Amino acid sequence: MHQVYTTFSNGNLWDISPIVGSLSWQSEIKTLGQKLSFDVAYSDMPFFPDNPVDVGGMIIVKNDGSEVLRTVVTSENKTGRDPINYSSFDPAFYLNKSKVIYQFNTNGDKAIRKICRDFGVPIGSVVSIPTKIDEIYNGKTPAKIFKDILAKAKADQGTSYVMEMRQGRLYIEKQDDVIVNARFDHAPNITGVGLQYSISNPSRKRSIDEMKNSIQVVKDDSIVFTTGSQSLIDEYGLLQETIDADDDQSMAQIRNMAKNKLNELAKIHEETSLELMGVDEARAGRLLDIEEPITGMSGRFLIKKASHTVSNGHHTMKLDVERIS
């Protein structure tokens, strides 16, 4: 059962679940953080419970005592005596609002830790990111700098990372380590059911629109390296991508960058949406194993967008996913 709390000035929690109606939250892979929307009942009748929620206040959602997410209320919408609608974002909201100037010549994780210290962002865990960041960031938000660092690390190492806020702390982990293995209880006597048994309305799209089966690397306006998948070129024709190398990159780094880009793009891209019983662990950037016989979905998928809804105690979710293996 999900409960919703706001906080007193002394940090104590105030359970507002009895006056909260609909509850929904979502995350997208292209944005840092989660958005929470909820309604609070309103009445000017005597003895109706007070509404302690205010713009700038903290909201914490728990499920059977475990924290699901915490957010800061950013907007309030009142219309007559209708329920009051609130929008809120997790603390990553602040990393999207300030523009900064940084110059780095250090490893990726050290650069991220430096920004977190400057902005007072508590760190839960940041894995080692050995890619060297030699860059000047001028007028960028911390969130965009983080994304650029992780993109550079992926190009350099071929490793994807997940960036999340949990319990007010920043976590950056290897994507392969963040897999949703949650189960749900179908009935009091039917527990621990796999998520795939609750799939409904599956939709699957397969396309070569984004496929690239040849990669060229350019440095100082000259092609310095080319690699490709001959089998895919023979089957689908030449689909080429050109990427730029930095002046200080060695040939070994250039070959590695091209190989990683080819591994990322040389495939049939598959996008899928499906509805399931809700589990709190499902959020954008995490991985999920799916076996769905109607559309033929099978394999490991990246969650690109997760939309959760809790209504009358019933938790459902819609996921947009992309097959990665």
UniProtKB/TrEMBL annotation:
It comes from the Bacteria. It comes from Salimicrobium halophilum. InterPro entries: YqbQ/XkdQ. Residues 24-321 form the YqbQ/XkdQ domain. This is YqbQ/XkdQ domain-containing protein.
